[in-house]
């Protein structure tokens, strides 16, 4: 199994206990399992933006400790800028946070598991995997 970045939507499906996501995620060896600081931020924000902040933080924080967290660094920034310029020239706009996640995956040569296929498939070279 190759190194795999898990996108926020899939992380949320796992937390909610969606069986097909739970089974597939648990089948990935821990040393191949990653998410990004952007996904981490999205999940923490979701907890703070919920009606049950403390309860959700108690679930989300320990859950995220199971993942190796990839940072958005200088190399990711270069990939982001080049990819965003290319997309813009072709009339494709992708939200910056999603493009940051994709840039990290591209930089490392990792697969990205997401349910947001239509959004991410516009990014050349991204190894995109859909589970649902």
From TrEMBL:
<keyword id="KW-0378">Hydrolase</keyword>
<keyword id="KW-0479">Metal-binding</keyword>
<keyword id="KW-1277">Toxin-antitoxin system</keyword>
<dbReference type="GO" id="GO:0046872">
    <property type="term" value="F:metal ion binding"/>
</dbReference>
<dbReference type="GO" id="GO:0016787">
    <property type="term" value="F:hydrolase activity"/>
</dbReference>
<protein>
    <recommendedName>
        <fullName>PIN domain-containing protein</fullName>
    </recommendedName>
</protein>
<dbReference type="InterPro" id="IPR050556">
    <property type="entry name" value="Type_II_TA_system_RNase"/>
</dbReference>
<dbReference type="GO" id="GO:0004518">
    <property type="term" value="F:nuclease activity"/>
</dbReference>
<dbReference type="Pfam" id="PF01850">
    <property type="entry name" value="PIN"/>
</dbReference>
<keyword id="KW-0460">Magnesium</keyword>
<dbReference type="InterPro" id="IPR029060">
    <property type="entry name" value="PIN-like_dom_sf"/>
</dbReference>
<comment type="similarity">
    <text>Belongs to the PINc/VapC protein family.</text>
</comment>
<keyword id="KW-0540">Nuclease</keyword>
<feature type="domain" description="PIN">
    <location>
        <begin position="5"/>
        <end position="125"/>
    </location>
</feature>
<dbReference type="InterPro" id="IPR002716">
    <property type="entry name" value="PIN_dom"/>
</dbReference>
């Amino acid at each position: 199994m190759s190194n795999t970045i898990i996108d926020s939507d899939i992380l949320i499906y796992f937390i909610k206990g969606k069986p097909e996501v739970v089974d597939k995620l648990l089948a990935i060896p821990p040393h191949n399992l990653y998410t990004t600081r952007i996904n981490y931020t999205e999940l923490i924000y979701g907890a703070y933006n919920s009606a049950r902040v403390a309860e959700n933080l108690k679930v989300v924080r320990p859950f995220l400790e199971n993942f190796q967290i990839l940072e958005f660094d200088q190399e990711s920034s270069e990939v982001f800028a080049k990819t965003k310029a290319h997309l813009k020239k072709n009339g494709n706009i992708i939200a910056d946070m999603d493009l940051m996640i994709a840039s990290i995956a591209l930089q490392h040569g990792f697969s990205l598991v997401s349910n947001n296929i239509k959004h991410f498939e516009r990014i050349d070279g991204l190894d995109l995997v859909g589970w649902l």
